[in-house]
Specification:
- The protein is α+β, with helices and mostly antiparallel strands.
- The chain is built from 23 helices and 27 strands.
- The strands form 5 sheets. Strands 16, 17, 18, 19, 20, 21 and 22 form a 7-stranded mixed beta sheet that branches. It has a 5-stranded antiparallel beta sheet with strand order 2-1-5-4-3. It has a 5-stranded antiparallel beta sheet with strand order 7-6-10-9-8.
- Strand 14 and strand 15 form a beta hairpin.
- Helix 19 crosses helix 23.
- The longest helix is centred in the middle third of the chain and has 51 residues.
- The radius of gyration is 56 Å and the shape is elongated.
């Protein structure tokens, strides 16, 4: 009985000497622990247990048991665990002393130790797995257990969830919380467990993805006891999954929208071929479904044009041998659509079974081929047009130089000759020269527009003043043709944004045509008015015979006079074509309508501008000529031009010095200090611009006025000369009156070119 007792009762004196004992301990302790009367009870206790026992005895209250004392004994180097209570019975007459009740708790202690170790291992594993394990009450009002993983997953200690049972709901992302809770409830109701994914918000604002598993725990009677669950951080996996899903969706979107066929093509070691993958757009592009092509690769291969099949197989063979990119262009027959051009781009790889697999795309490049063909044709046309423009420009330049002498001497003779018979011939000569000059100017302008070398300088132009000026210039023609010209000025000041010279040229062309092709005794009206959209409209209206409808499609075609060449009316067929192009260069337009009551109405539309524009080539002094003769240096290599300038200088009494070389002219200017320098740009030794630069950079000659006299009348050339310091620019053939006015002007009061 004593050996089977679970506890050992020992009576000791105050010094722990054993007086009496009864009962016994089971197991190893019972066999090895030998407590004898007259010996201290703590002889086998470890040092720490001896201290615990001594301390407990020292604080005993008679008759009151001590708290359970955890004691350890060392038997043959192995520790065993006891639990002991002590009662002070010194005041009792029977069993007086200290009564020790000792129980062997080794098995329980080791079981608890193993449980603690298991818990520690489980916690370590859960921390490694980034998992939070929990258990909550059946009514979900509070947690029963929370693992350390909460701190890692939620970035909040588990204690926060104990303090605030609603915290688990509050940490769920606002956009996910309702859906997550509803899904949990539905799944638990349907299959007694739930798995749901949602986002959580950490205190630092970062977002993490969580997979939560929830299982209800019930007793044998089916009563709900609690909920157990886990939360796993799946952020990386989720983001990777989302990225993969997005990539797949993006790929599918791209494949659907790519104007080509995405494919995989395999060539097996035995030479057979197949399409493991081909996108759905195949049916739209080549007329066969992806399934048809996947089942029979020859549907595409056999449709390749016989002239292109050899190059396709050669390119494929080279790509397979070198693993280089497979690029091929060729024609493929597409049923009733005939042959279309396709371009193939793909990259090969060798497979373990010896086959070659190409991943690539097939594009329908028929439209590109057509554009390329059109571009080649356009380039050829532009080259031909450029050659034509260069030829016209050069010829115009070459023609203007001799025409300068013709018109110059003609104008000079018209001033000097008094005999009416000769004077009438000279006037005819000058009119013919002016007509030839107009033709050359129009040809040159068209060539500049076609070669995009025409420059315009748009600024505010007074519409009322301009239309009166144009009518005044054509008044002699109107008188000759017996046509009445009416002017309708705008009621308020109105300004057009235009190049004044070019706009005047357009209106002169239109008004001259309206006069020339009108009836004898007809009428023409030139007007300007504001139009909607801040635009200005110039209208040229006549009551003449009009233009037949079948000829209007050729109205603005160069050199096409629409049958007027048989009327005897002088013309070039360039006026309307040039006018239209000039209007477009200035951002405007020109159109023709039938005039009310018969005739034609031409409308030129331009943008409105603010301000005024002063249009003058030279501001020439109106004071009477000075009596002192001027010294003029003329740097020119053309004999006819120098002879003309010599006659003009002689006419006004100026001393003219001529040199044909630019370098010699520069030296002459330094030595003679002339009042003016007239400078041609096309010289045998130096470019005229270089001579101008030399003159303006030298202290001795920088203040001498230099006027350019050139057959190059382009705006770019003119502007460059003025920017480099030229005092003015005279285009050959020049007006004799302008040169005479310059020669008579005091150099200290002269103006500059506009």
């Amino acid at each position: 009985m004593m050996e089977q007792s679970k506890s050992l009762l020992v009576l000791t004196d105050r010094d722990s000497q054993v007086l009496f004992m009864t009962g016994g301990l089971g197991g190893v302790v019972a066999k090895r622990l030998r407590i004898a009367v007259g010996q201290p009870i703590d002889r086998y206790f470890t040092e720490e247990s001896q201290w615990i026992a001594t301390e407990a005895v020292g604080y005993l209250t008679p008759g009151v048991p001590s708290p359970p004392l955890p004691l350890t004994v060392d038997l043959d180097g192995q520790e065993y665990h006891l639990e002991c209570t002590v009662v002070d019975r010194s005041s009792e007459s029977v069993m007086s002393g200290l009564l020790w009740t000792i129980t062997d708790t080794t098995a329980r202690y080791r079981a608890e130790e193993e449980l603690r170790e298991a818990h520690t291992r489980t916690s370590e594993i859960l921390r490694t797995l980034n998992v939070a394990v929990w258990s909550v009450t059946s009514d979900k009002t509070g947690p029963l257990f929370l693992s350390d993983g909460h701190a890692k997953i939620y970035a909040r200690p588990a204690s926060d969830f104990f303090e605030n049972p609603n915290l688990w709901r509050e940490v769920i992302h606002p956009d996910d919380v309702d859906a997550a809770i509803q899904k949990i409830d539905r799944q638990i109701e349907a299959k007694d467990e739930a798995t749901v994914e949602y986002r959580i918000l950490r205190p630092d604002g970062s977002v993490r993805w969580i997979e939560s598993r929830i299982c209800p725990v019930r007793d044998n009677a089916g009563r709900l006891l609690r909920f157990n669950g886990s939360a796993v951080d799946i952020t990386e996996m989720k983001l990777e999954r989302l990225a993969r899903q997005e990539s797949e969706e993006r790929y599918n979107r791209i494949v659907r929208k790519v104007p080509g066929i995405v494919y995989q093509f395999r060539r097996n070691p035995d030479g057979s071929t197949s399409f493991p993958f081909i996108s759905a757009r195949a049916e739209e592009i080549v007329g066969y479904t992806a399934e048809q092509i996947a089942e029979n690769a020859d549907l595409l291969l056999s449709a390749i044009h016989e002239d292109d099949i050899v190059s396709m197989y050669a390119a494929m063979q080279e790509s397979a041998a070198t693993l280089g990119e497979f690029v091929w262009e060729g024609r493929v027959y597409i049923g009733n659509g005939g042959y279309r051009w396709f371009k193939v781009n793909s990259n090969p790889e060798h497979c373990e079974d010896g086959s070659v697999l190409w991943d690539g795309i097939i594009f329908d490049v028929t439209a590109i081929k057509e554009v390329e063909q059109s571009a080649r044709e356009k380039e050829a046309a532009e080259q031909a047009n450029a050659a034509k423009s260069e030829f016209l420009s050069r010829m115009s330049h070459e023609l203007r130089t001799p025409l300068n002498a013709i018109l110059g001497f003609g104008q000079l003779l018209e001033i000097q000759v008094e005999d009416e018979n000769y004077l009438d011939m000279i006037r005819h000569l000058n009119r013919a020269g002016q007509h030839l000059l107009a033709l050359i100017n129009e040809v040159l302008d068209i060539s500049r527009i076609e070669s995009r070398n025409l420059h315009v300088s748009c600024e505010p132009v007074d519409c009322g003043q301009l239309i009166e000026e144009v009518c005044s210039l054509l008044s002699p023609l109107a008188t000759e043709k017996r046509v009445q010209v009416n002017v309708e000025r705008p009621p308020e000041p109105l300004y057009a944004n235009a190049d004044a010279q070019r706009l005047r040229q357009i209106l002169l062309n239109l008004l001259a045509n309206a006069i020339k092709y009108n009836w004898d005794g007809g009428a023409v009206t030139l007007s300007a008015k504001a139009a909607p959209g801040r635009r200005v409209e110039f209208r040229v209206k006549d009551n003449g015979p009009g233009i037949p409808k079948h000829r209007r499609s050729r109205l603005f075609t160069a050199f096409d006079r629409l049958g007027a060449e048989s009327t005897g009316v002088e013309g070039t067929g360039l006026g309307l074509a040039l006018s239209k192009r000039l209007a477009e260069v200035m951002g405007g337009s020109i159109r023709m309508e039938d005039a009310e009551g018969g005739g034609c109405l031409f409308i030129v539309t331009l943008d409105v501008a603010e301000g005024r524009h002063v249009d003058a080539l030279f501001e020439v002094s109106t004071e009477p000529p000075l009596s002192v003769s001027r010294t003029v240096l003329y740097i020119e290599d053309n004999f006819a031009s120098t002879r003309l300038m010599e006659n003009l200088a002689s006419h006004v009494g100026a001393r003219l010095h001529v040199t044909a070389l630019g370098r010699l002219g520069y030296e002459s200017a330094k030595s003679m200090q002339p009042d003016f320098v007239f400078l041609d740009l096309d010289l045998p030794d130096l470019d005229g611009m270089e001579v101008l630069r030399l003159l303006k950079s030298n202290e001795e000659t920088k203040d001498i006025p230099v006027f350019i006299v050139s057959a190059d009348s382009t705006m770019a050339r003119r502007e460059k000369a003025l920017q480099n310091g030229a005092a003015g620019y005279l285009s050959k053939p020049f007006e004799v009156s302008e040169v005479i006015s310059l020669l008579r002007t005091d150099p200290t009061k002269r103006g500059t070119a506009a």
